[in-house]
């Protein structure tokens, strides 16, 4: 696992061995901290033949091999990647939990991004959460606890995953070839190291680097099309760019390069840009970006 997750994993392993492991585990934390990977590991541990005694998969038993082939009949996976998790999916989950395990061991349900569950779906899940059946486990991930119904939260064991010691994630990133010496912005994401790894795997590191440079020199931007084509390479990049912009303006405010009114006006323009992107379907992205960039340039020219 990742060094910043080891301690939490050990705590869950201990609770398992003392028969105190909760049947419904809600793993929450920032995007890019490793929740999905952690839940995948936990489901492997729970399905492995060794789970009769310990929570640590062997990688060799029939269950482990079935999992590796992504073909385990006692694992159900619900992902909130596309829009929402609806009531039909939760009813299928309830059925799955009810029927006996094909491999004779535990049955595991993984629900990614539980905050994407509709209200009726969450209601349908309550009974299963409330009345735990033997050898049934529900593992959930969540990016934002405030979006989860209190009735769901109260029926789960909440496990927070976070990078508490940034040196750990920085060292891990160095092992992936990403250093803050080379990329000045890398420390911005030291609590979300898997984001950087994903960008590296997608060949996007130089694009993120370019966005950082643009954000710190926004008054020089003239070519909106090039900037938009960089941003359109991945859905995560708009949020990254606006985060860099806000950081840049904070620094400029701190050294007196801009005044507070300018800072306030800039952040308002950035917020409007972000909210337009979320709300307006089929938005003209180039126009919206040029409104942002030229709007910011206007504010920065005022004294
Ligand atoms: Zn195994």
CATH superfamily of the largest domain: P-loop containing nucleotide triphosphate hydrolases
Shape descriptor reads elongated
Please state roughly what percent of the residues sit in beta strands, choosing from under 5%, 5-15%, 15-25%, 25-35%, 35-45% or over 45%.
5-15%
Distance between the termini: 52 Å
Structural class: alpha/beta
| Total of DSSP H or I helical runs spanning 4+ residues | 13
Ligand species: zinc ion
Organism: Pseudoalteromonas luteoviolacea CPMOR-1
GO molecular function: 3'-5' exonuclease activity; DNA-directed DNA polymerase activity
Protein name: DNA-directed DNA polymerase
Pfam family, one: DNA_pol3_delta2
Please give a quick description of this structure.
The chain contains 13 helices and five strands. It has 303 residues and is of the alpha/beta class.
List the helices and strands and how they pair.
Blueprint: H1 3-17, E1 24-28, H2 35-47, H3 62-68, E2 75-78, H4 87-98, E3 107-111, H5 119-130, E4 136-142, H6 150-153, E5 157-160, H7 166-175, H8 193-201, H9 205-215, H10 224-231, H11 237-254, H12 260-279, H13 285-301
The structure holds zinc ion.
Keywords: DNA-directed DNA polymerase, Nucleotidyltransferase, Transferase
Organism: Pseudoalteromonas luteoviolacea CPMOR-1
GO molecular function: 3'-5' exonuclease activity; DNA-directed DNA polymerase activity
Verbal overview:
By secondary structure, this protein is an alpha/beta fold. The chain has 2 domains: 3-160, Rossmann fold; 202-301. It contains 13 helices and 5 strands. The protein has helices at 3-17, 35-47, 62-68, 87-98, 119-130, 150-153, 166-175, 193-201, 205-215, 224-231, 237-254, 260-279, 285-301, and strands at residues 24-28, 75-78, 107-111, 136-142, 157-160. It has a 5-stranded parallel sheet with strand order 2-3-4-1-5, with helices on both faces. The longest helix is centred in the last third of the chain and has 20 residues, at 260-279. Zinc ion binds next to helix 3.
